[in-house]
Write a structure and sequence with these properties.
Elements: E1 2-3, H1 14-36, H2 39-45, H3 51-72, E2 75-84, E3 89-96, H4 110-124, E4 129-135, E5 139-145, H5 148-156, H6 170-183, E6 191-198, H7 207-216, E7 219-225, E8 232-233, E9 235-237, E10 243-246, E11 256-257, H8 261-273, E12 278-280, H9 288-300, E13 306-313, H10 316-331, H11 343-356, H12 374-382
Parallel strand pairs: 3-4, 3-6, 6-7, 7-12
Antiparallel strand pairs: 1-2, 2-13, 4-5, 8-11, 9-10
Length: about 400
């Protein structure tokens, strides 16, 4: 047995308070009787001693109060076990395809390494469904599918040079990923995850607000941060994937990519506000493999098929017993009801009264006080007695 709301059990101690109040009331009644007169004489004037019935009524009331709070605590008993099926996992991979992803601090490049590790992820997370969003200045989406190979192929065919608009619009990309999940009718019953893989900071939109909206929809945003505050040169890559030269600005100085402190804080806030996890690349790794292990562990533990104990609420039993005790306390009188006299007894009493006459058997001295003769009052008045004539009448 267990209680669904055990904090209500503390309220059962209020039954002790009711018991104390009833005891104080009994003590007050005894003191009132003692002030009225001698208890033995007062008891002789009563037709029934109600103390035992008052005790029973008090016990019934105290038990009813205690059982009411037990019912509020919702006692539950096990009625068996049920098999909870596995929960499906929907993952939308949001991969940055800005030209800074061509940087070579991760071999062979950030974008090539990310695509290879994403392909390995979809192979290892068998049973999950995947969608994809490739973004730079504008996002390109791929709907949810159980075919992980299709997702890997979609990302493999895209290069940063193919993106029509440059930049790092993380907010638009997350919004596009949210639309992919919300448009899928099966997704509402699944565990939903975004996997954001980026090396930049969104200077155009507000990805933190989009992450907050996604969290309200039950979506967790996990972030893989590639690169850091160390400047990395950006190569110019040709159509064949080879480095042609290094990108420079209008003054001929090399273009570098690095993540500012504000950018790191932005990515950390995206993960925190949505209940996700942040992984930073280090020692030549993007961190995607670590995220794969995290999601795989999630599928084998929290989302896996499991057996749960099923409990039934039994609050109706203590509640019904409490109502029964209240009814008993209400209909239990402090004195027994007197039986009405039978017609024969009423006729016998009437005959006895007629034969005895009015006032029979009654001592008239109880109703009349003695009177002094009028002549005695006159004599006392003549003698100057001021109290003459003021006697009882």
């Amino acid at each position: 047995m267990k209680f669904a709301a055990p904090y209500w059990l503390f309220g059962s101690f209020s039954a002790l308070l009711v018991a104390v109040l009833l005891l104080l009331g009994g003590v007050g009644l005894r003191r009132a009787v003692a002030r009225f007169g001698v208890p033995e004489r007062v008891a002789a004037l009563t037709t029934f001693d109600a103390s035992s019935r008052r005790t029973i009524k008090g016990v019934l009331l105290v038990l009813a109060v205690a059982l009411s709070f037990v019912a509020l605590a919702r006692p539950q008993y096990s009625r068996g076990q049920k098999l909870v099926p596995a929960t499906n996992l929907d993952v939308v991979i949001v991969l940055d395809f800005s030209k800074s992803m061509y940087a070579r601090d991760v071999v062979p490049s950030r974008v090539a390494r990310a695509k290879a590790e994403v392909a390995r992820m979809v192979r290892e997370l068998s049973g999950a469904r995947f969608g994809a969003v490739a973004f730079a200045g504008e996002p390109l989406g791929f709907p949810l599918t159980s075919d992980g190979a299709a997702i890997a192929q979609f990302l493999r065919q895209i290069e940063p040079n193919d993106m029509p608009i440059g930049g790092t619009a993380i907010g638009r990309a997350l919004e596009r990923a949210r639309e992919i999940l919300l448009r899928d009718p099966k997704s509402k019953d699944h565990r939903k995850v975004f996997l954001l893989i980026t090396d930049g900071e969104d200077l155009e939109g507000n990805p933190v607000e989009v992450a907050r909206t996604a969290a309200a929809d039950g979506i967790s945003v996990h972030v893989v941060q590639i690169g850091g505050r160390t400047p990395e040169r950006i190569p110019e890559v040709g159509p064949d994937g080879r480095v042609v030269s290094w990108r420079t600005d209008e003054n001929g100085r090399p273009l570098t990519t690095q993540l500012s402190a504000e950018g790191e804080a932005q990515l950390a806030e995206i993960a925190r506000i949505s209940g996700g996890k942040l992984v930073r690349s280090e020692r030549g790794s993007t961190g995607i493999d670590e995220m794969t292990r995290h999601l795989k562990s999630l599928m084998t533990t929290e989302l896996a098929e499991r057996v749960e104990t099923v409990y039934d609420d039994k609050f109706a039993w203590p509640l019904g017993l409490a109502l029964l005790l209240v009814l008993l306390e209400t209909f239990l009188n402090e004195a027994p009801r007197r039986r009405p006299a039978t017609p024969e007894a009423r006729r016998a009493a009437l005959r006895q009264g007629i034969h005895a006459g009015p006032g029979a058997g009654v001592d008239r001295r109880l109703w009349f006080r003695p009177q002094e003769p009028i002549s005695a009052h006159v004599t006392r008045g003549r003698q100057g007695d001021p109290g003459a004539g003021s006697g009882p009448r």
